[in-house]
Amino acid sequence: MSDPADHDSPARAALADAVREIEHHVAAAGWDAPVRVFALVRTSAALAAEPDLVHQLTPAVLVAAATQEWHLTSVEQEGLPAAPDLESLLAEISWSAAVDGVAVSVERVVLPPSAEESLPADPDEAIAYLMAHPDRQDVRLVVGVLRAGPSWCAVRTRANDSDDQVGGGADVVPGLVEALRATLQ
Predict the structure, then answer these.
(1) CB of 42 closer than 8 Å to CB of 61
(2) Between 20 and 30 A from 163 (CA), which of 31, 41, 139, 141?
(3) Which domain of life does the protein's organism represent (predicted)?
(4) 107 close to 140: Cβ distance less than 8 angstroms
(5) Is the whole model's pTM more than 0.85, yes or no?
(6) What is the span of the domain harbouring residue 147?
């Protein structure tokens, strides 16, 4: 597991904190969840734009917002457009300039490379194969990116479903990182 403090900026450390917070929030709802999308905004900017927000935040968050330029608040997006898959959903999303970043939570089934060699070509057969394979791993990915450049990913497996077993790194899921970046352009 990589530590964001070993990297380049307060922005990346704040993003890593926000991604971990989102992952814990999503984990509290359990497994087999739909895709969830979050806007990330600097808490200080959100407070300046919406002064009444002060009543909804904890004292610790207010102190962090006052002392950390990059402290982030996540805002879950509801009423997402219907889409056949994550790629199509992300292609339909764009963000206003007030949004500093975006995060997404998604669950996937992964197999070791050796098992993928036997994956049937027929989509329905492939799904049945994935769901029945003894080496399958269910994973939850929370991936976040900032307009300023940094990215952070958190990964939890169903087999090791505890907060102290969540892995993380800047580019664990590079394709999803790039897809999220595209929503900010």
Answers:
(1) no
(2) 41
(3) Bacteria
(4) yes
(5) yes
(6) 4-183
Using alpha carbons, list the distances in angstroms from residue 55 to 29, 62, 73, 97, 117: 25, 10, 14, 25, 55
- For residue 169, give the nearest of 137, 144, 138 by alpha carbon: 144
Q: How many CB atoms lie within 10 A of CB 167?
A: 14
CA–CA dist 33, 159 (Å, integer): 16
Q: How far apart are CA 169 and CA 185, in angstroms?
A: 23
Query: Which residues are registered as beta bridge partners of 143?
Result: 104, 153
Residue for token digits 């102290």? 164
- pLDDT tier at 1, thresholds 50, 70, 90: very low
Q: Which two tokens stand for residue 22?
A: 């989102």
Tell which residue, 106, 129, 131, 103, has the closest CA to residue 118. 129
Could you give the C-alpha distances from 5 to 8, 9, 41, 182, in angstroms and in order? Answer: 8, 8, 20, 26
Q: In whole angstroms, give the CA distance from residue 17 to residue 117.
A: 37
pLDDT at 7: 47
Calpha distance 22→159 (Å, rounded):
20
User: What's the domain count of the chain?
Assistant: 1
Average the pLDDT over 5-24 and give the result. Answer: 86
pLDDT tops 60 at residue 76: yes
| Separation between Cα atoms, residue 159 and residue 139, nearest integer Å | 9
